[in-house]
Amino acid sequence: MKTTRLSRTVISGAAAVILPVTLGVMAPQAFAGTSTAPADPYGPACASVPKDGSGSLAGMAKDPVATAASNNPDLSTLTAAVKKAGLVDTFNNAKNVTVFAPSNEAFAKIPKADLDKLLADKAQLTKVLTYHVVGEKLTQKQLEKGSFKTLEGAKLTTAGSGDNIKVNGTSKIVCGSVPTANATVNILDTVLMPPK
To answer: pTM (2 decimals)?
Structure first.
């Protein structure tokens, strides 16, 4: 009788030690290679993104795209344009989109008189801004050679590799694969204009 009790105690004690060790070793192996983490942001302008706070890469990942852009100081002109066009809710409520976001530097390339005219014309501004949005999350690999329909209705093209990917042959992605809660953002050095 005593032997049986001792055996049960030893066996249950051994199980208590073996089970956690087995789970600890097995759990990581069971999930190895199943990560679906997004690609890391790439491009020279990523270095100028704030290191912490709501405008940082980690901070932007928590917010929907229009809110995330408003927290990034290099996207303040874009944010103002989105507000003027009344597209904040549209962009924030969109699901799984890619936004090609012109930086302040990109908007600065447009002559002031032309930019002021664009910002004052809500219909044209909406057309330009929705031309910067594709209705699916695109990976860096897909951008190496692609043609994508925009929310505006026309297509844009992408080509290149690594840190050197251009949109429509003229606008360079200077910080790509930036995650937000509902979109992937690719920051551009030139504003895209939809075909007439």
So the answer is: 0.80
What parts of the chain have a pLDDT lower than 50? 3-4, 6-37
DSSP 154: S
Handedness of CA 122, 173, 167, 66 (dihedral sign): negative
Positive or negative, the Cα torsion across 82, 84, 89, 94? negative
- DSSP labels, 49-98: S-SSSTTSHHHHHHS-HHHHHHTSGGGHHHHHHHHHTT-HHHHHH--SEE
Q: Indicate whether 157 belongs to any domain.
A: yes
Question: What is the domain range of residue 13?
Answer: 1-30
Write down the pLDDT at residue 38.
53
- What's the confidence (pLDDT) of residue 50? 87
